[in-house]
Amino acid sequence: MKLIVFCLFTIYCCSLVKASTMEHKKLKEVLRELKMLKSNLPNTELMMNTPPKDIEDCCCLTALTCFRETLLEHFGISGKYQKKLYKSLNHTLTVSTFGLNFCNTETSTTNCSTCHSHPKENASEFFNRLESLVQRVRLFQIYFRKLYIKY
Amino acid sequence: LFFSFSFLYLLCSTSGYILSLYVDCLVVNLDYISCTWNKTGTPEVNYTFYSKLGNDQWKMCNHYLTENNVNIGCNKEIDSRDRFKTFRTQLTNGSEWFEKGHELKKQVKLNPPTNLTVLNGSDFNLWFYWNHTSPAPLHCVESEVRFRTNNNNWDVVSAGIQKYCINLPSSSSRYELQVRNRVDDACGESIFWSDWSEPVVWGSNNSTYAKNSMSPWMPVMYVVGAITVILLAMILLHHERWQLFVTSEGFFSLFFKDWFQFSKGLKDNFKPDYNERACPVREYNYVSQSDVVSSDGSTCSVTTDQTDCSIEHDPEDLSAPFPSNPVSSEEVQKASV
């Protein structure tokens, strides 16, 4: 009986580590697709609602949602790169990284600005800010994983 | 008109003076931001420095960098993720204000790697290891090494995370290696590489040792080789054929004995009184293929105009074996008698 419990606990711990590894790889995939889209931008003069650079930690998920929906609204998913990026931004792993791992439930998220309240920026700035946000979250996610493994 | 020109002159000169206070900010090792304003020379007066990171309030500098008792820069401690935030700076001497925004994400310069060591692995490869001191995770740091062999030109290549391998190094060569790093693309690539680390050298001391360690074996190999050659020579000397070879008579009898047997006829041909017997030429009767089938069942082709004088054969000698040629009618009649 003790052996079974121990095995189940080991499997549970390994799955958590594996999940965080998958999140790590997912964000890297997002960055790769973003880079491809940036180099194939159809219209760089387009102005879009863009979340600011100084997003609070607990508003990162709201910002991600804004980026994703703005991307859908202005670029659609007909293009190959747009479709891939949208799917990656909508993936469960991406959402969980931005939400659960990045903000504890005690902090309120009601103070986060709505998407349409953000000032408009051109497409180049839009994608640069999205890239910075993903890199920032990824960096924190790596820290989180190290701490989790350590403790 | 005069006043407008004067105003323009004052404006330009003032602007030029403010523009000369160009503030450069760099994130050092992801630990602190270092801003300096002495790029065009040491300022004449002391300026007060303020900075605003993200949504924080403006804060005055509490760690100035000075040169000749004049403030020329400021260091501000940060968290490694702060470089993704907006960063604004203000310089003021009370009457003049200069404000500027900075993009810090890529303005990062890490400290050079430390503790660069080299090991000769059990796989006979040369392994180099190092540490980096920044708070960046390992997967966010990109490394590059440069190495040279025997003080030749440097080779610059990408390296793995905190290690690099040189395959099967030569024990008589000297290897020197340095490494540098920066934040990689997936974590906000820095445009600056760190300085090169302190070099590590392998092979300069070992080459002497290798020479000394190899020298006892070389004479041994020479001695063994010499002994082998001598033994082979002795075996040959004691051999009967070798003894015969020494004398000229034995030489000819040894090598040409058998050959002489086969070419005895040739030898005889060179005698002055040589007389060759005429070779009879005959016409052979055709023999059907069913009569000349060999023992293994294969059939042989038959020709009708074949002459063969290579085998010495007396037509009167019935005891001699039949030749391998088709049978002549005369010989068949004589054999049957």
Automatic annotation (TrEMBL), chain A:
Superkingdom is: Eukaryota
| InterPro entries xrefs | 4_helix_cytokine-like_core, IL-15/IL-21_fam
GO function terms (MF aspect):
cytokine activity; cytokine receptor binding
- Major location category of this protein: secreted
Name its GO BP terms in alphabetical order. Answer: immune response
Q: Does the keyword Zinc-finger apply?
A: no
Where it sits in the cell: the answer is: Secreted
Where in the sequence is the signal peptide annotated? 1-19
The Swiss-Prot or TrEMBL record describes its family as follows:
Belongs to the IL-15/IL-21 family.
The protein's job, in short, is: Cytokine with immunoregulatory activity. May promote the transition between innate and adaptive immunity. Induces the production of IgG(1) and IgG(3) in B-cells. Implicated in the generation and maintenance of T follicular helper (Tfh) cells and the formation of germinal-centers. Together with IL6, control the early generation of Tfh cells and are critical for an effective antibody response to acute viral infection. May play a role in proliferation and maturation of natural killer (NK) cells in synergy with IL15.
Name used for this protein in its record: Interleukin-21
Organism whose genome encodes this protein: Neolamprologus brichardi (Fairy cichlid)
Automatic annotation (TrEMBL), chain B:
- Residues in the signal sequence: 1-16
The biased composition feature labelled Polar residues covers 325-337
InterPro entries with a match to the protein in the record = CRLF2-like_D1, FN3_sf, Ig-like_fold
Single GO MF descriptor: cytokine receptor activity
Q: How does it sit in the membrane?
A: Single-pass membrane protein
Bilayer-crossing regions: 217-237
Q: Which UniProt keywords apply?
A: Membrane, Receptor, Signal, Transmembrane, Transmembrane helix
A GO cellular-component term linked to this record: external side of plasma membrane
Q: Domain (Cytokine receptor-like factor 2-like D1): give its ranges.
A: 28-74
Chief location? membrane
Q: What is this protein called?
A: Cytokine receptor common subunit gamma-like
Q: Which organism is it from?
A: Neolamprologus brichardi
